[in-house]
Design a protein that fits this description.
mainly alpha, extended
């Protein structure tokens, strides 16, 4: 296969590039990004991973942090290594405190239903009540859902928004009372 024209010539040294800056930026890009913001802000790039984590009061090796006791065999005594963890000085305790506080916060419910699905379910319940066969024949049933599919969508809506569903049903009952 023929080579592309102009690719075989020798590369010339570019005097206009700042090699020191290029090297530094390449190193910065190559270093992994720490996902936890608390650790990232307290991180010291001049120190090793073990030193950084020790300063923050975090364990770099879980096996050393919480050693597994060796089981004794029948009739034999197993010698312990005599390895005991010395006191480590935690210079950055705020990192662990911030992480504990963040972990104690209740998890935000991120999964929701689309506005279209909510409107669709409300329309169907408002016009047809619990009659799923009638809902399946409705003109607004664009996707031609079967009665069971519609029932499933309504149940999903009930599970996601139970209070809103109860209020909606109560308002429908109130409207029926007013009409009668």
């Amino acid at each position: 296969m023929p080579k592309a024209k102009g690719k075989s010539r020798r590369q010339k040294y570019s005097y206009n590039l700042n090699r020191k800056r290029l090297y530094r930026s390449a190193r910065r890009r190559a270093a992994p990004r720490i996902a936890c913001s608390h650790i990232r802000h307290a991180w010291d790039p001049t120190k090793s991973v073990a030193q950084n984590l020790a300063e923050m009061g975090l364990a770099d090796d879980p096996n050393k942090a919480i050693p597994v006791p060796k089981k004794k065999l029948l009739g034999m005594e197993v010698e312990s290594d005599g390895w005991k963890q010395g006191k480590k000085i935690v210079r950055k305790p705020y990192v662990v405190n911030e992480m504990e506080y963040e972990a104690s916060l209740p998890e935000k419910k991120s999964n929701t239903l689309s506005r279209d699905l909510i409107d669709y379910v409300r329309y169907m319940i408002q016009n047809h009540g619990e009659n799923y066969k009638e809902m399946a024949r409705d003109e607004k049933n664009y996707y031609q859902d079967t009665p069971k599919q519609i029932k499933r969508k309504i149940n999903v809506y009930k599970n996601f928004y139970p209070e809103e569903y109860k209020d909606f049903i109560a308002s429908l009952k109130q409207e029926k009372m007013d009409v009668q």
